[in-house]
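Our platform keeps sequence and structure together, in a single record for each protein. Because each token names a local backbone shape, the row as a whole describes the fold. One such record is reproduced below, unchanged from the form in which we store it:
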Amino acid sequence: MKILFFIMLAVTSELPALWAQSVFRAAIPKTWDEAALADWATPVTGLNPPPGPSSEEEYHRAPLGNQSSLSAGSVAQSGSALTSAQQKVVLSYFHDVLDGRKVELVDNLFQPDCVLHFGSSDVQGIAGVRVMVEGIKTTYSKLATEVHDIFESEYRVVVRITHRATGAGVLRSRIGNHDVSGKSITWDAIVVFRMKNGKIAEDWVNRDELGVLLSAGILKAK
């Protein structure tokens, strides 16, 4: 009797496992072979994200639904060792071209068909950028740009900046032209750049125009 009891106990203890195995096999497609079954049943201990595009062309060719899985670019503060080549181009535009008045560097930093979008107008092409920089030189005797944040994702670079300038001529705004000679002017801005082949192809400028007018004394705060 004792032997029969232990035999029955061994059989009944195997029943849950046999039942679970039959349910597991019934849930998978019959066309799977044993190797596929083993791979499917193996616990996953870690997954690596799909690699990002190796070029700008691959990025733009990626289906819209798949672009959310593309790897993000590096994030770096100004002056960090992580500053990328794209960020260095953007920083050179502010510090060398605008602040340093080195118009000759424009060709090295911008695509020939570049477009810069401002609130009321656009600047197009290398020639347009040169004219814009020359205009800044006549409006301000001194310009200094402080970069608070700079980061990028794929072929976009974003900066948050503060401009500090000393007026030297006529400031053109949406409400008219104003002489700002000798006046200290400060304003903030956020700029989004689209890069192409290591140069600036397009940007969108969102600046505090009210702050410009208030800082220059053109408008009075109540």
About this structure: Residues 2-27 form the longest helix (26 residues).
